[in-house]
Specification:
With 523 residues, the protein is an alpha/beta fold. It is 18% helix and 25% strand. It comes from Sarcophilus harrisii (Tasmanian devil).
């Protein structure tokens, strides 16, 4: 019996080879012992015709750019797939859905920049995953949640700058995690909590920011985490702040790992916009480390209004789309809230929040929407018993267009009446003022005649100063002669002292009558 089993074991590779040859082999590839070797053939895609019983496929050193679910669907017994050193940049969701027996997957040295959980769906038995040397920048929450039996995860030599707290969730069997040679500046304690079986951790050659957020890592290593680190891995060197640059995290006291809570400035803090306008609101935050800026809409619009698009722009991560009433977007340092094609749904309160390990600060922003410039046509009045579909306005709104037609008319009439009353009062006051001024001028006019050979001097005019001592000045030096008492046939007019007497009177007094020059003197 034992002899029969040994003979069967020795014949198994030969039988497998015969089966592979019987099912064919991809062009230019080599097939042997349930293995297909297609390396260094300048392939642009996964070659068709790989026998379904294949367990190991070598596709390294080619120019394959994508993996589709159909490429590997026939290979349900595949256990080892090596595709390092290709040009892979896209992995179709569910690309490995049919490879439930896969144990080792090598995708290192490619151009992969984005990972999500749907890519690894179906790999329940995967033990080793090589992703080193790609262009990955972020590890989002639950990226590896479909890899419960994964034991080794190689992520070194990427550009990972963000490791979210739940990015490694589900990796309860992981024994080795290599995050060296990335762009990590910090890592949270929560990110490593799911790794209950971790035995090796590599974090060297990252630009670590040694502040209060990294205090736990130094303490953890000193307390027992050092068992996971080799002598080289313990040398976690700080890149910032400048005063701690080039120092080892383990050599820095906890009191030196500090953070500065954020301060926030929003400009403007309140704005009024018309329908259809675009609006940009700046939110600047400072602190250490640089705060994460987040915009939220905290005042919900009423039911029946359309949902509007809100975009946060600015900063190194660009803009992100969101819906009103939801968490909008985040950015580091500064954020610009950009509202386009404003509707009534945009009206309300917003909030800019800046947070860092030192704390968080929130500043509100109020947006009012003015309907005075662009108002949609008024719909016909609803039939009796029908529900009105006129736009709703926020409670407390003082917008004129938000009032009814009768109220608008009454307000306009009241304003017009007040304006007319004010105009009439102004006219009456002006007329009364003019009359008083004219009367005062007439009371202050003094008429004199000049009998001298030359013009009257101001010294001579001083003689006509009235009893109150008012100053006098000449208004008209060529005023016509005034009627004499003789011409008037009356006595001197009242209030006109200084009029010329009749010629007979002048002759009786022995005076030589000469042409008279009259002056109008104002006091």
């Amino acid at each position: 019996m034992a002899l029969g089993e040994s003979m069967l074991a020795s014949l198994l590779p030969i039988l497998s080879l015969l089966l592979l040859r019987g099912q064919g082999c991809p062009t230019a590839c080599r097939c042997y012992s349930m293995t297909v070797e297609c390396g260094s053939l300048s392939l642009q895609h996964v070659p068709p015709g790989i026998p379904p019983i294949t367990q190991t496929v070598f596709l390294q050193d080619n120019s394959i750019t994508q993996i589709h679910q159909a490429d590997l669907a026939p290979l349900s017994g595949l256990q080892y797939l090596y595709m390092q050193n290709n040009s892979l940049w896209a992995l179709e969701p569910g690309a490995f859905l049919g490879q439930q027996q896969l144990l080792e997957l090598a995708l290192n040295r490619n151009r992969i920049h984005l990972l999500n959980s749907s890519i690894f769906k179906g790999l329940d038995h995967l033990r080793v995953l090589y992703l080193a040397g790609n262009q990955i920048t972020r590890l989002l929450d639950f990226t590896f949640c479909y890899l419960p039996r994964l034991q080794e995860l190689h992520l070194q030599e990427n550009s990972i700058e963000l490791l979210e707290d739940q990015a490694l969730a589900g990796l309860s069997s992981l024994a080795l995690l290599d995050l060296s040679k990335n762009q990590l500046s910090t890592i949270s304690r929560d990110a490593l909590v799911p790794l209950a079986s971790l035995q090796v951790l590599r974090l060297t050659e990252n630009p670590w920011r040694c502040d209060c957020a990294l205090h736990w890592l130094g303490a953890w290593i000193k307390e027992g985490g050092q068992r996971l680190l080799s002598s080289l891995d313990k040398k976690i060197v700080c890149s910032e702040p400048p005063r701690l640059a080039h120092q080892s995290l383990l050599d820095i006291s906890g009191n030196s790992l500090i953070c500065i809570p954020p301060t926030v400035h929003v400009e403007p803090v309140e704005a009024t916009a018309r329908l259809g306008d675009d609006l940009r609101v700046s939110c600047q935050a400072s602190g250490y480390p640089q705060p994460l800026v987040t915009w939220r809409k905290v005042a919900q619009s009423r039911l029946g209004l359309p949902r509007a698009s809100v975009r946060l722009v600015g900063g190194p991560r660009g803009g992100n789309e969101g819906s009103l009433g939801e968490h909008l977007a985040s950015d580091t340092g500064s954020g610009m809230l950009s509202l386009t094609n404003i509707t009534m749904a945009h009206a309300g309160k917003y909030e800019c929040e800046a947070s860092n390990p030192g704390g968080s600060t929130r500043v509100p922003f109020q947006l009012l929407v003015n309907l005075s410039q662009q108002q949609p046509p008024r719909p016909p009045p609803p039939a009796s018993g029908a529900v009105s579909r006129e736009p709703l306005y926020e409670a407390g709104s003082m917008d004129f267009r938000a009032l009814g037609a009768a109220t608008q008319t009454a307000i306009a009439a009241g304003i017009s009446l007040l304006a007319l009353t004010a105009l009439l009062l102004t006219v009456m006051i002006c007329r009364k003022h003019r009359k008083r001024k004219k009367a005062k001028q007439e009371e202050s006019v003094l008429y004199v005649n000049d009998y001298s050979d030359g013009p009257t001097t101001f010294a001579q005019l001083e003689e006509y100063r009235d009893e109150r001592g008012h100053e006098m000045f000449v208004i008209n030096r060529n005023k016509p002669l005034f009627p004499t008492y003789e011409e008037s046939g009356e006595g001197a007019p009242p209030g006109r002292p200084g009029l010329v007497p009749s010629s007979e009177t002048l002759q009786d007094q022995g005076l030589l009558f000469q042409p008279q020059i009259a002056y109008e003197i104002h006091c």
